## 1
Amino acid sequence: MKTRPSAIILADNKLLTLKYNYNGNLLYAIPGGNLEFGEKLEVALKRELEEEIGLEIEVQNLLFLAEVHQQNKDTLHCVFKAKVVSGTPQLNPNETTALEICWLPIETIENYNLYPNIKTQIKEHFLEGKDHQVFLGEINQPWL
């Protein structure tokens, strides 16, 4: 099972995402990436955001764990709250195939194809203040 840490970074009730085009379909990914062999989650997350979008972050609390099971590919998403320590988000085309950086309004997040697909949980937690379980179990992730 692949492990993918990612960072929820908010500004003015907007979520930082990376926009991709897969087969003509738009996907908005919460920034993060895959672990290198022997790497710790927090270290990998900091490295990925520095490499891909030039941000130094402080990893805060773990918000969600979610499993995605596909044929020949299983992923455990570890979604952390994070805070920008320094830098302004800017794509590094040597490290990512993302088209652009997008700040998605949380109040309309259900209108976007989000990766991982935790739109409802983000909206409930950050806008509605609802308590939630950290472990979400298996989530439905549409693949384009």
## 2
Amino acid sequence: MRILFITATRLGDAVISTGLLNYLIQAHPDARFTVACGPVAAGLFQRMPQLERLLVMTKKPYDRHWLELWKQCVGTRWDLVVDLRGSAISLLLRTRARRIMRGGRRSGLRIAHVGEVLALSPPPLPVVWTDTEDDAVAQTILGDREVIAFAPTANWSGKVWPACNFVDLWSRLEKISSKKKLAVFYGPGEAERAMAAAVLAIPGAIDAGGRFTLAETAAMLRRCQFFVGNDSGLMHLAGAAGTPTLGLFGPSRRSEYAPSGLCAEWIAAPGPEGQAPISGLTPQTVFERVVLMLNDAGCEAHGSVGAASA
């Protein structure tokens, strides 16, 4: 059996789709999978079981990337095509069955929309796939310490809680538990590192960003006791890794992109969704929520065990 799974370009959307893909893997243990995604998300799928091909779509003028994907797929007789991009390509391939997710703005969580493609309610939670090499990297970087993860970056300035607030938050957390260590996560590139610089400058902070694969990052997040970060791909990855996760929201849509996981919550700046500046979210407010979640027995049971990983 051969299954084509066309998923997102953006990391957060791709993470959200992993639950549906993992459902298919478990439902069809003998199937061979081809996954098509954007370059940023490609690392999510490199460790997944039953992967036959990973097709990385790099955006090209006049949507030529879709033509190239069609050329790579048209020679195969598929048993199932799952298209989360709602593209025309899924209608132009030979397949026994196709499931297409329609686009456009819709109310409700994105993960629920993804689950509807296969009529799954509740939708399957996102997962991460790692191996022993990734776990070894995580052990080297984080060791066996109690680690709290901060992710102070995002792909849009409106999503970025000011770095000074992360510094303030850590000073509050350090006072109640001096044994905990801070790990700072961020994406590749100088712009991401610059956004994280003030948080990286906290004495004793562990640099857990920039140079790691997504599987290594997921393995590190899985070892963390807690995650606090902006609405970003890293936030969704932390939730998928089973790490107790608190997502920070300003003008972005928490009604659609709230983190999903065994213990994942969000907190938003006061004001109407889509309008409230994230700077209105105070360190004290975030600190109080973090403490509540850290003291929650249900969240604590999931911390660093990787129960959402595959």
